Amino acid sequence: MHRDLDEIKHRLIYDKRVLESIERVYGDETPDVLFSLLTPPRRLYLRINILRTDRDYVLDLLREEGYNAYPDPVIEEAIYFIIEGPNKISDYGLRVIVDKRAAESIMMGAEIYSPGVVYCDKEIKRGSTVTIYSENMIAVAEGEAYVSCEDAMMSRKGLFIKNINSLYKAPPIRELNVWKRGLVYPQSLPSMIASRLLEPKKNDFIVDMCAAPGGKTSHLFELSGGLAKILAIDHSKKRVEEMTENLRRLGYGDKIDIRVADSRYLSIDFPGLVADKIMLDPPCTSTGVRPKIYDKKTEKDLVSLVKYQEQFLREASKITRKGGLIVYSTCSITYDENEGLIKRFIEKEKLFNVVDVPEYIRRIGSEALEGLGIRFHPHKNDSPGHYMILLKKI
Ligand code: SAH
């Protein structure tokens, strides 16, 4: 019996079909994999904007701001911080309960804003010491109230509590000068590797089909030395606005063609569209994302996401030129969304070969099942769970 089985069951509510899809990959190691999802990786990564600066300069600037970061030994545009924790969180009797989204950032050290709060004890006054809980009653932080519970609930906006001690602690990225100046972009190592797999070059025409908020798009542009032509598409207007702002901050917002569109119908909406390279990073169950305060996924979630992912992949196949490349990437750990879907796609279309992943990348990740791409294992690779494959159109 795994030491933490009860905690896993309480926090990761995955139905039988979802668990089977994870067990198909991880077998006996499944409890270790699931347990690792409850905690953050030890390293928090940033990508250096190599069009504007270099790594040593950013490391110096961070040191001046009081933060120690380290260069990744393999990926030259990557640096990381070491995340502190887990720290002990005490119950002060006065309680605040926050929603899942808020809890997952507060547990990493973020401040507590009123909109994320679902409950607070009426006795909380300005200056009270309080304990912050998630909805499933995991103590995520201790803090000091700026305003009373009553005021916070009435105004429903603004800072409520200062985070004094959290379960884990990572630097506040968006407050760093290097972030504000567009010299870095927060991104996991596997996500960086996905863009690297496409090896973007001068004059490549690249379509990023699910692009917002622009992490992979911006990396692709940077890797090409600012010389690839990129069409970045996303169907969410709000997320496209966020991407536009991110690319502007990085300093080349006007050099990338950004469109709001449904990528399942690109061949219809953009007649004659032919890409050299495609980045396909579709919505997924996000089962590899860490840390999770809790998560719930049903068979229906999984099946409908796989259908959605297949639609994108079919469309990607239509708009890729002969000899062109597709990277398919997800932050999911299931078999169905990854090897399962890719295997069916290759066998059905008979149009694509799997391209071998460069040796340096294979050393960072782990081979996926049946030789179909690579995986980053949350319990072994000290990273989020991630899958990716490089396909070439014959
Ligand atoms: N590649 C991004 C993250 C993408 S997350 C990065 O590296 O930063 C998946 C994205 O797919 C979301 O932004 C979502 O809005 C988008 N999406 C979902 N359905 C879509 C559709 N039908 N057409 C285009 N984009 C879609």
Question: What would your notes on this structure say?
Answer:
- The protein has 394 residues and is of the alpha/beta class.
- Helix content is 33%, strand content 25%.
- The chain is built from 14 helices and 21 strands.
- The chain has helices spanning 5-11, 16-26, 30-37, 55-64, 100-106, 149-155, 177-180, 189-197, 215-223, 237-250, 266-269, 299-319, 336-349, 359-364, and strands at residues 12-14, 43-48, 70-71, 78-82, 95-98, 112-113, 117-120, 129-134, 139-145, 159-166, 184-186, 205-208, 229-234, 257-260, 275-280, 295-297, 320-330, 352-354, 366-367, 374-376, 386-393.
- The strands form 4 sheets. Strands 12, 13, 14, 15, 17, 18, 19, 20 and 21 form a 9-stranded mixed β-sheet that branches. Strands 6-10-9-8-5-7 form a 6-stranded mixed β-sheet.
- Helix 8 (189-197) packs across helix 9 and helix 12 packs across helix 13 (336-349).
- The protein starts with a helix and ends with a strand.
- The site of S-adenosyl-L-homocysteine has 19 residues, from helix 9 and strand 13.
